[in-house]
Design goal:
Blueprint: H1 10-30, H2 41-44, E1 46-51, E2 55-61, E3 66-73, H3 76-80, E4 85-96, E5 99-107, E6 116-124, E7 128-133, E8 138-143
Antiparallel strand pairs: 1-2, 1-8, 2-3, 3-4, 4-5, 5-6, 6-7, 7-8
Length: 145
C-alpha cells in the first residue's frame, strides 16, 4: 500500500485549514464585546445595515457628510428571482446633538428626492446604533462588515 493514497492532497489540507480559520475569524468578530461610543460624527461614519422583515438597507456614511444607501427587498420572490435592489439613494447627512438627519439629493425612486429623514440616536456602540424616528419607530442598525 502506498503512503500517498492514505493522505489528503496538500491543496485539500490548505483549503480545510483556510476555511476553519475564516470561520473562526467570523465567529470571533461576532463575539466582539460592544463598546459604548460617543454620539459624534466620527463614530456615526461607516457602513451600517438595517434588516427588517420586508427589506434590508445598507448605509455608507462618510465622515465628510455624504451618504449613499441601498434598499433591497427581502421577500421570497425578490430573493428567489434576484430582482435586485428596490432603491438607491444618496445625499448629505448631518448630526446636530443626537439628531441624525439625511437629506436625499439623488435616488432611483424619484419620489424620495428632496426628502429629509430625522432620527434621534439613542445609543451608539462599536457594533450598533439605536435610533428613534420622528414617528416613534425604534430601529437598531448593525455595523456592517
Amino acid at each position: 500500500m502506498e503512503f500517498a493514497t492514505l493522505t489528503k492532497p496538500r491543496n485539500q489540507i490548505f483549503i480545510s485549514r483556510f476555511v476553519a480559520l475564516l470561520a473562526l475569524l467570523v465567529i470571533t468578530a461576532g463575539c466582539e464585546p460592544t463598546t459604548p461610543e460617543p454620539i459624534d460624527a466620527a463614530h456615526i461614519a461607516g457602513r451600517w445595515e438595517l434588516a427588517t422583515t420586508g427589506e434590508t438597507e445598507w448605509f455608507d456614511i462618510s465622515p465628510g457628510g455624504d451618504f449613499s444607501a441601498t434598499i433591497r427587498s427581502n421577500s421570497f420572490i425578490a430573493t428567489t428571482l434576484s430582482q435586485g435592489e428596490r432603491a438607491r439613494l444618496a445625499g448629505r447627512w448631518e448630526l446636530t446633538g443626537n439628531t441624525l438627519t439625511f437629506h436625499i439629493e439623488k435616488s432611483s425612486d424619484e419620489a424620495l428626492v428632496g426628502q429629509e429623514h430625522r432620527y434621534e440616536v439613542q445609543s451608539l456602540t462599536s457594533n450598533t446604533m439605536a435610533t428613534v424616528a420622528a414617528a416613534g419607530r425604534q430601529q437598531t442598525l448593525r455595523k456592517a462588515l
